[in-house]
Amino acid sequence: MTLFAARFTILNPKNESQIEMNSLKNKVAVITGASSGIGAATAKVFSSEGIQVVLAARSKDKIEALASEINERGGIAKAVETDVTDEASVINLFDTVGKEFDSLDILINNAGIAKGGPIDELSFEIWRQVMSVNLDGAFLCAREAFRLMKPQGRG
Q: I need a labelling partner for 33 at 20 to 30 A (CA). Which of 13, 42, 55, 82 fits?
């Protein structure tokens, strides 16, 4: 299954030069929402290019199965059950990364949900669920990733 080409080009904001995917070999990436869809596909492509992946999602069985698949193919993957709406869970994720890997180089803030409907029918409870995952979760992960990346001077 080919979802997109395995060659990526990333813009480096300091000098606007392009970084080829090969220069990311052995880097460490945290991918939230890694249990399915874009998150799982990203993990497979990254690992096929030599990037070590940390799979984060609430679906423990799914990310453990994906980690096993990646590891069996010669990649390096670790599954960490994570609820991005829970600050302690996110802190645990990045504490695990800090303890088990030499660095953190990439955060793919992919966890998200889509619920809704016409605004006049949308409950505040559904609104808060969406905002909690899509905004609060992205903030918590970015903050904790930055706490690891800042001392490295990169990421």
A: 13
DSSP assignment of 101-121: SS---EEE----------GGG
DSSP 8-state secondary structure symbol assigned to residue 74: T
Q: What number is the average pLDDT over the span 38-67?
A: 97
Q: Cβ contacts of residue 29 below 8 Å, gap of 6+? A: 46, 51, 52, 53, 54, 105, 106, 107, 108
Domain membership flag for residue 35: yes
Q: How confident is the model at residue 102 (pLDDT cuts 50, 70, 90)?
A: confident
Please indicate, yes or no, if residue 52 is contained in any of the structural domains. yes
The pTM of this model reads 0.85
Does residue 100 carry a pLDDT above 60? yes
CATH (domain of 54): 3.40.50.720
Task: In whole angstroms, give the CA distance from residue 55 to residue 67.
Answer: 7
